[in-house]
Amino acid sequence: MRPIDQQTILITGATDGLGRALAGELAAEGATVLVHGRDDRRGEDTLKEIGGRASWYRADLASLAETRALAEAVRADHPRLDVLVNNAGIGSAGPRRESADGHELTFQVNYLSGYLLTRLLLPVLTASAPARIVNVSSLGQTAIDFGDPMITRGYNGTRAYCQSKLAQIMFTIDLAAELAGTGVTANALHPATYMPTKMVASPISTLEEGVRATHRLVTDPSLDEVSGRFFDGLRESRADDQAYDPQARARLRDLSERLTSP
Question: N or C: which end of the chain has fewer CB within 10 A?
Answer without folding.
Answer: C
